[in-house]
Amino acid sequence: MKIVLKDIILINPEQNLNERSNLLITDGIISKTGSLTGSDTEGARVFEFNDKYCVPGLLDMHVHLREPGREDEETVITGSNSAAAGGFTAVACMPNTNPAIDSAEVVGFIKEKAKNHLVDVYPVAAVSHGRKGESLAPMAELAEAGVVGFSDDGNVIKSAKLMKLALEYAGMYNLPVIEHCEDESLAGGAMNEGVMSTFLGLPPLPSVAEDLIVMRDILLAEYTGGRVHIAHISTKNAVDMVRQAKKKGINVTAEVTPHHFTLTEESLKTYDTNYKMNPPLRTKEDVAAVLEGLKDGTLDCIASDHAPHSIEEKEMEFNYAPNGIIGLETQLGLALSELLHKKVLTIEQIIEKMSINPRRILNIPVPKFAVGEKADLTIIDINQVWTVDIKSFKCRSKNSPFDKRLLTGKSVAVINKCQMYYEDRFFRL
Amino acid sequence: MPLTSRHLLGLQGVPAEDIQLILDTAVTFREVLERPIKKVPTLQGKTVVNLFFENSTRTRISFELAQKRLSADTINFSVSTSSAKKGETFKDTVKNIEAMKVDMIVVRHESAGVPQFLTRISGANIINAGDGTHEHPTQGLLDMYSIKEKLGRLEGLKVCIVGDSAHSRVALSNIFGLKTMGAEVSVCGPATMIPRDIDKLGVKVYHNINEAIKNSDVLNVLRIQLERQAGALFPSLREYHNYFGITSERLEKFNKDIIILHPGPVNRGVEISSEVADGPYQIILEQVTNGVAVRMAVLYLLGTLNAKDMI
């Protein structure tokens, strides 16, 4: 089948590309770019996009798909639907499933589930057996099964010794160790420690719990030469440490979530558990530091930490409610509203952080706009104003603090694996 | 003039007029408690549930007594008989209780924010009887009542909260309420027991108990929770008593006019010596009596609040 994406602005910083163009896609492969003739478009379905942006398919490198184990909250398929609706053609899924992604069998199970979906699902495997933090998972076998990184996310990698081993072992396969930075002895609080936790009387979780592990892991990355990726960075000190480490040439990268660059701990005043996450929402100063880190390139990626939770688990007493919020369907809108339209980042920088850098970190080839290349792309309308309505989400869970928020900018369509998602529908190309 | 809110979730944000109204109303009920027949028909026909998810003897008894003195129908629901252990969610428990048509819920819970959560899932008037380490507003009110009864005013007084402010629900209610009423509030205790950035709430911090005594009109001495804190937040009970305990020697040496409050139960020989706990400076038992009157005032004002008077 032939389709034409007419009047698009092709943007791919990897190719130094930012130009008005058209794309002819035949059976999922780009067969022509630039101006098209009558014979090119003959028999093709034409999509008129009126100068909307066409960018390499977005990749969210930090999502929780909950399958296997909590299919009531999300599955590989519902999570992938949510990703496509949010403008993503690929996700990396975290291993805190039940059973954990710590064997080739579970990796195979997830890949099999995702096989026919538009969205590429790249499993991240556990660092330790069962994510227990005791002994290394079979990393070589997992690497061979096709995982894109290792993480005990949800938990910190429990000891410096285990982290050292993980960096050394994963280093053999040039795979990153993705760290949830939280010193265990300081963990257990329900919100950022400071005047707000004092004011609200909620159990405090000090920002230094994150900083300590960021420092530990940077030192271990330097010592071993391994690659550490800091997940969901949220504090000013952590951003500063990553910045300094990069200057020294240490193999460290970092991601930030939309909620950590959009919201502060002030949101907790209503005790709404949709604002309970880990790392917790921080202060205005931390948000400013994160924005600065995005701007100067210290922070490589934007990732959602998409964490579906059932209504009955989230609608609970604050101390007992689980951490985390869903994010696949609000991430792009928040990035465009808070970063592009507020002139923190250019559109190219946003594409780098949501498409190119995550792939580089996970060793995944970046899609290109050239004849013969597979069409893997996202069409974005940066000016579309829309109101978040969680009831319309594809995600199986509804735990978002952004319901009813007005956003500017949205994904219009995604294409990948010879499939297209457009106007709320999937179809084959 | 009625109260401006139909719930009492905390003293943070409660206007001075409301606090004054509660304290003034409590004076009337305090007088009722001295009568041979200590019961008035004010809340006849109203049903109040005491929903206690955490152990409490005195607060629950005080509330229950206040309800009975106002002729309300009272139901007690406590954690030992709770559905929490049967796997029912908090929300379902509340919905079930509410389906039995109750007018007011008095709630205690170990998680901060539960009273706020209750207002979103229930139509009853909610009274916070202690949520986590957040607030315990009726304790704050009875402390203010007792101070005022003894010293005739709140404005301009210097009140110091001594002990583990970080794990206390009494501290914040005292801080918010007293500051609204024009008092100066400070906290005193080991640094490990002072919540971070509390100075940003306009509270002075002391680590030297003698200075705190010297500079205060009132000490509100918090209970040291023996079971969980010895060895964790401070080295030993002995060291705590030696450096932060309230003793007659200290009071006589540094401030003979001081008033001592304690929310109870008292650990004699730890945060306060027996001599002080029974001595002329303290008003501990007055607090207990006043607590019933203050809770009667709160129940009465909320229970008779007409919906159309709400702002």
- Distance from N terminus to C terminus of chain A (CA atoms, Å) equals 5 Å
Quick one: CATH class of the largest domain in chain B?
Answer: Alpha Beta
**Biggest interchain interface, per-side counts:** A-B, 21 and 25 residues
Strand order of the largest sheet of chain A: 3-2-1-4-15-16-17-18
Task: List low-confidence stretches of chain B.
Answer: 307-311
Largest sheet of chain B: 5 strands, parallel
Question: What is the third-level CATH name, the topology of the largest domain in chain A?
Answer: TIM Barrel
Helix-strand category of chain A: alpha/beta
- CATH topology label of the largest domain in chain B: Rossmann fold
Shape of chain A: globular
Helix tally of chain B? Answer: 12
Radius of gyration of chain A: 21 Å
Mean pLDDT of chain B: 93
The CATH architecture of the largest domain in chain B? 3-Layer(aba) Sandwich
Number of strands of chain A: 18
Could you walk me through the main structural features you see in this protein, from its secondary elements to its overall organization?
- By secondary structure, chain A is an alpha/beta fold.
- Chain A is built from 13 helices and 18 strands.
- In chain A, helix 7 runs parallel beside helix 8.
- The N and C termini of chain A lie close together (5 Å).
- With 311 residues, chain B is of the alpha/beta class.
- Chain B is 39% helix and 14% strand.
- In chain B, the strands form two sheets. In chain B, strands 7-6-5-8-9 form a five-stranded parallel sheet.
- In chain B, strand 3, helix 4 and strand 4 form a beta-alpha-beta unit.
- Chain B is globular and about 55 Å long.
- The chains are: A alpha/beta (429), B alpha/beta (311).
